[in-house]
TrEMBL record:
InterPro entries (UniProt xref): AAA+_ATPase (IPR003593), ABC_SmlMolc_Importer (IPR050093), ABC_transporter-like_ATP-bd (IPR003439), ABC_transporter-like_CS (IPR017871), Mo/tungstate-bd_C_term_dom (IPR008995), P-loop_NTPase (IPR027417), Sulph_transpt1 (IPR005666), Transp-assoc_OB_typ2 (IPR013611)
Keyword Translocase: yes
PROSITE patterns: ABC_TRANSPORTER_1 (PS00211), ABC_TRANSPORTER_2 (PS50893)
Listed NCBIfam families: 3a0106s01 (TIGR00968)
Protein name as catalogued: Sulfate/molybdate ABC transporter ATP-binding protein
GO molecular function: ATP binding
Gene3D superfamilies in UniProt: 2.40.50.100, P-loop containing nucleotide triphosphate hydrolases (3.40.50.300)
Amino acid sequence: MSIEVRGVGKRFGTFVALDDVSVTVPTGGLTALLGPSGGGKSTLLRVIAGLEAPDTGDVLIDGAIATDVPVRKRNVGFVFQHYAAFKHLSVQRNVAFGLEIRRRPPAEIKEKVAELLHLVRLEQFADRLPAQLSGGQRQRMALARALAVEPRVLLLDEPFGALDAQVRKELREWLRRLHDEVHVTTVFVTHDQEEALEVADEIVVVNRGRVEQVGTPDQLYDHPANEFVMRFLGPATQLGDTLVRPHDIDVRLDGTGLPGRISRITRVGFEVRVTVEQGGDSVLVLLDRARADALGLAEGLSVGLVHAPATARVAT
Ligand SMILES: Nc1ncnc2c1ncn2[C@@H]1O[C@H](COP(=O)(O)OP(=O)(O)OP(=O)(O)O)[C@@H](O)[C@H]1O
């Protein structure tokens, strides 16, 4: 099911939360809405879901205008950051809930729930209460519950936001694999660029109520449309009149490149961070240890800086 957002605007009082947003989410894709806090990601997701009515513009689901279709008829599944499970119901009853209220036959419900619990790897926890699960297991239960009614679209608002870094990492790998098995058109909100780069097929960068850029992770990382996208997707440093990635700069000792002087060297594991004072800027250069050692870099040394061709850059 494709989703098309056409010229959507949304204000809260005088505050413009979404400003003429247009974006297309392809069928079967895993799309991230990525941006800083308060930029409008959740509002956009809620408009797609039908939880929030846009002031202007339309949402089309599979080519048909859905703006006036009520939430329950849109056939979307949701998972939010702080997922509210039914505390007194077992995991399997929670997953079965949507099917029970739709009065599906008991045998069908049983089979479907078993299939879903297998999919989210919670078979052995079927009879537990939600309180007896870890945070990551609870979010997997939430996904199984959302998938139970076979939604046309799955919308996830920071689904792993409240979890610790290690569990988040496991769950995002798991979400990617789940999506590869199920292929339901999925949109998830995140403010974590690494999460978006790692998991999504396509990323929509949302900032101050506007779409800054849409593209695959590689397109956005390697060809950022502007300074905001460049800085938001990864480290960036000023080199002359250009903004570049610190690991795309090489250090020369043969008199070529923009001249500067090393002010600081920090070794962090495999990586060597070199700060070079160049033309009034402190330029950050990231080298791997072998390259830094081969050059014999030291604080106070005069060097030349060269930006690798055909890598990300934005003129400033
Ligand atoms: N119901 C509301 N009433 C008033 N203002 C709102 C309402 N919902 C959202 N906003 C405002 O709209 C802006 C965008 O909010 P939104 O939740 O969409 O941002 P976000 O990008 O998802 O941020 P976060 O990652 O912090 O959730 C924020 O400044 C927020 O305060």
